[in-house]
Amino acid sequence: MRVLVTGGAGFVGSHLVDAHVARGDEVVVVDDLSTGRLQNIEAHVSEGRVRFLEGKAEDPAVIEPAFDGVELVYHLAAAVGVFQILAHPLASIRTNLDASSAVFERASARGIRTLFTSTSEVYGKNVSDALNEDDDTIYGSTRVHRWLYAVSKATDEFLALAHHQELGLPVTVVRLFNTTGPRQTGAYGMVVPRFVRQAIEGKPLTVYGDGGQLRCFTNVHDVVAALMALTAAPAAIGAVVNVGNPREISIRDLAALVCEIVGSNSPVELVDYESAYGKGFEDMRRRVPDVSRLRRLIGFVPTTPLEDTIKEIARGIAPGR
Ligand SMILES: NC(=O)c1ccc[n+]([C@@H]2O[C@H](COP(=O)([O-])OP(=O)(O)OC[C@H]3O[C@@H](n4cnc5c(N)ncnc54)[C@H](O)[C@@H]3O)[C@@H](O)[C@H]2O)c1
User: Fold this and answer.
1) What pLDDT band is residue 321 in, cutting at 50, 70 and 90?
2) Has 149 been annotated as catalytic?
3) Given this model, what pLDDT does residue 92 score?
4) Which domains, ranges and CATH numbers included, belong to the chain?
5) Distance 88 CA to ligand 1 centre (A)
6) What's the distance, CA 36 to chain centroid?
7) How is the chain split among helix, strand and coil, in percent rounded to 5?
């Protein structure tokens, strides 16, 4: 099978590429390397298992040839990470909307099975015990750029579902909850790799806010297995599906757990949201997925213990790198 992965040089995308290559598929990657790294897929490219097209998914000169002979599309290319969005709001909106339009339009015209990675951010300020795919989304003011990522991805969801309804696109919308693992970079605000690096380097672990905010962290290999199973499940066509590990942990406890696993005496340093993200930043106290729909569709849900994921990330980070 020939598979197209937009954003395939990024963190989640490159693990997805690994899994398809291991299955014997031909993979085409479109990535502008804005936050991704060629080294994530370089071995496959040099072995001729992956065709890499460097450029923007919204650029017709790039995306048109990328679709040649493709039978399955994963659309991951997006402006990702809170720092990235706050620093480049305009480019982020354009990327998230234009790239998705370009991909869904071409996949619809050819009737290709497509999976779009949305985010738990679309739930916004909804802090239910377990967020269900049909729950309300609750956003703050448009003057708070933090909501831009959520709203742009939610608009992409509307776009995907409208292509399904009106043009028959066989698409699944997946809401990824915090995904973590090797190759994720802490540079764009991702907390687990940042803590692991700080702990290894003996630096203070910087916790934003009071650290009492609750999050769930999902191992990237579990996510890849779920994405591949969803694309093979006919009942997932036209569906919106949460993908996440429902185990909750506060960010303060996460910092302590990282130090314990890495064997570090690094202190925890609380940094208020305004110093970390600028004036008017808003955050959610809690974000936990209801994964009953995922279980119904594919028969399993992510379960890798966070401790194992932290160890895996630590093995990939050498001090001073
Ligand atoms: N990692 C998470 O916790 C998480 C959570 C929720 C949703 N997601 C979603 O998963 C997807 C992958 O995220 P990730 O964590 O691997 O981040 P990432 O930054 O590593 O991956 C995004 C990739 O897209 C590429 N890219 C960005 N704009 C592009 C464009 N216009 N054209 C082509 N390539 C472009 C980047 O270079 C990068 O390789 C994204 O759609 C993101 O919204 C991730």
Assistant:
1) very low
2) yes
3) 92
4) 2-180+218-245+287-303 (3.40.50.720)
5) 15
6) 12
7) 45, 20, 35
CA distance 133 to 230: 15
Query: What's CA 120's distance to the chain center, in Å?
Result: 9
Residue 110 has φ and ψ, to the nearest 5°, of: -105, 0
More confident residue, 86 or 218: 218
Distance between Cα 36 and ligand 1 center (Å): 8
Tokens of 126: 């909804």
Q: Nearest Cα to 67, choosing from 23, 34, 114, 32?
A: 114
Residue pointed to by tokens 């399955």: 72
What is the rounded distance in angstroms from the CA atom of residue 207 to the CA atom of residue 251?
7
Q: How far out from the chain centre does Cα 180 lie? A: 9
- Quickly list H helices, 34-119: 42-46, 60-66, 82-87, 89-110
Q: DSSP class of residue 266?
A: P
- Look-up: residue for tokens 């939610």? 154
Measured CA to CA, the distance from residue 31 to residue 5 in angstroms comes to: 9
Say yes or no: CB of residue 30 within 6 Å of ligand 1.
Answer: yes
Q: What is the pLDDT of residues 225-248, one digit of tens each?
A: 999 999 999 999 999 999 999 999
Give the full edge-to-edge strand order of the sheet including 113-119.
50-54, 26-31, 2-6, 72-75, 113-119, 171-176, 240-243
The model's pLDDT over 249-283, given as tens digits with 9 standing for 90+, comes to: 999 999 999 999 999 999 999 888 777 777 766 77
Dist. CA 82–CA 84, nearest whole Å? 5
Largest CA distance in the chain: 57
The answer to whether residues 169 and 156 touch, using CB atoms and an 8 Å cutoff, is: no
Q: What is the C-alpha separation between 141 and 87, in angstroms, rounded? A: 18
264 lines ligand 1 (CB under 6 A): no
Residue 193: which H helix or E strand, with range? Answer: helix 191-200
Which token pair is 62? Answer: 């790039």
